[in-house]
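Practice record 12: protein with B1H.
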Amino acid sequence: PAFGERRAKAERMFALMDRFLKNDPISLQKDILNHVEYTVARSRFSFDDFEAYQGLSHSVRDRLIERWHDTQLYFKRKDPKRVYFLSLEYLMGRSLSNSVINLGIRDEYAEALSQLGFEFEVLAEQEGDAALGNGGLARLSACQMDSLATLDYPAWGYGLRYQYGLFRQLILDGFQHEQPDYWLNFGNPWEIERIHVTYPVKFYGTVEEELLNGKKCKVWIPGEMVEAVAYDNPIPGYGTRNTITLRLWAAKPSDQYDMESYNTGDYINAVVNRQKAETISSVLYPDDRSHQGKELRLKQQYFFVSASIQDIIRRFKDAHDNFDEFQEKVALQLNDTHPSLAISEVMRVLVDEENLDWSRAWGIVCKIFSFTTHTVLAEGLEKIPVDLLGSLLPRHLEIIYDINFNFVEELKKRIGMDYNRLSRMSIVEDGAVKSIRSANLSIVCSHTVNGVSRVHFELLKTKLFKDFYELWPEKFQYKTNGVTQRRWIVVSNPSLCGLISKWLGTEAWIRNVDLLTGLREYAANADLQQEWKMVRKVNKMRLAEYIEAMSGLKVCLDAMFDVQIKRIHEYKRQLLNILGIIHRYDCIKSMNESDRRKVVPRVCITGGKAAPGYEIAKKIIKLCHAVAEKINNDNDVGDLLKLVFIPDYNVSVAELVIPGADLSQHISTAGHEASGTGSMKFLMNGSLLLATADGSTVEIIEEIGAENLFLFGAKVDEVPMLREKGTDMRVNLQFARVVRMIRDGYFGFQDYFESLCDTVDGGSDFYLLGSDFGSYLEAQAAADKAFVDQEKWTRMSILSTAGSGRFSSDRTIQDYAENTWGIERCRCPF
Ligand code: B1H
């Protein structure tokens, strides 16, 4: 009878719903206006663009939710092996355009809006970026989520719902200032708050031993408890109904825990203290390298890991009554070492809470974890001070010690008493500050360790993880990074998207990117070339308008748009670019009229954020502005050379800048960029690359041919020798001259730039700017020469896009699914 009642109720509800939402213009208009009136609470007769955007995005959200529910129900019914992607950072950017494109209703919305007197693009511009990450690693997570959904993999992303995303960059007088990014100010239609999906997360306290059924067990008596609340972000796939979940955790005070403090009479202070729990998920650390030994950072890591593991185990237990099949149903992916506490957490839950034997729990752990490292240098590896870990997570420290004890015992049997090697490989580092080496923990406990490009893999094997590679060669693999062509062509470059589909005669490349190679046969076709140039012109125009609106600077569309845009780091060598620009300026200044007529005009565009505490990076930003000030106001130079710094570089700015680039620079010192993914976005959009043979560029060369890009600089294996040698400023006259110009105060701020100059001249020059300068200038000259021959340039540009298919995250994800996670597609029927 209960069943009958439930069924009758379900049928009644279903009859009341209009089945699925309809996507004809009238239905869309009604939905948008309803949301304006009832969700946004503005009158339908009077609302502005932002309110229209809100109504619009809520109507899209409804459509996402339908598919998301169906997908989740389908996964639940099928109970496939799932991959859980653990990452502390996701750079999602905007969601509106991407969602309607992936849902396949972009044109319907555009039509519906235009009948209401709105333009889709204009409303889409109202959306702010979700910037819950720093740079490449975070945007990679976002691209991979898009591919996981599109390829129908049963996947979940887990992360932190920071209240403050990556700081906004404000430039005042050429100096970077950081402003907080309180991004949830105006609500976020792309998330669904799940107030009932909460888990307690414990910190501090002590570990005690208890007897349970005659068996000794460890009990962790926490000293603090906070609540993790789930916020689900539906991620729609393209050309599929599948819509997966990115679940981000927010910290809230726990009701269970601090009842005591209310009985002490100090009610106000009790409430204020309680509120402090929320600081755990309040702010993203803005340094895209190490911030070691920070308690809040460790708290963030454990907070998100603990909530995610509880959620994963709860989901597993809903469908299984023991852990026999755990490893057949669960794959856990560690995005770098940041979530590596998940390992000790799974051990803790299985042993202490689920009462499995240590050896059985260990057997499971070793089969479920895989680890991807994005790091190149040993100095970049994460370490957790033992004192800090012991106070924050006492039981975890014990577990990690136990794992290490077993590992070292095993290792002694394999390699004998080689103390140096044993101490290098130990998870516990006995230094001035005793610490846990997160990477060693991750390697020991994972079945697979992946690098992010082939060059990176070689470095892992021969340097960073050499000891481990020799012990377990079978564990090591690489999956060259990729980016999603949905966002980086379809969303960001609609004209190119249309052109590609027209010439390939199909839109199938949006799901099957290998088809892009079909463009190769038309690379020299005059008609395609004509249309290709038109599309590029339109995108350059869009970028030029943005530059003018932002800086007042008018740039010439016939000039070569030369772009370097990424986080500011010494190893990425933005300084090399600026020195090259100074050299170009210096040359133009010394030319006569007739020589000047032969110069290929350039618009040099740079941008990127410096970590707030990274002094040298901040000086590079200031130098860029100081040089721009000089060049842009020099009438001798005019349109021959312009320099622009685009402030507050983020995902949506990238979507505008990348399609407008003729040339883009990826010029890190060889051996320092694990992969690099910006280059792939430029490549897809037909920008030519000026690059060093570093990271994924080596593979790009193989794909498009060395003749189709401008390569320069030392190779990975030449770097140590060149470093040894140092730059001889007496030989390297051009380099010495441009550095001297800065030192002599040619661009002002003489004292301020001194320490910056010190990094490249004199004895040091660690990143080899001096020794690569000559070949850099040659590559720049080759680019100028190629640009004069527009037919050749356009052919190279078409071949760049045509060869970009291998750098789709679809390829990366399929490789992970098959060779690392062992998961299969699970496609929700329409
Ligand atoms: C990359 C990071 C990173 N590598 C620490 N490492 C962070 C390290 O907040 N933190 O603590 C944040 C980020 N990010 C980048 O990953 C590499 O430098 C790129 O070469 C690579 O393309 C990208 C994606 O694999």
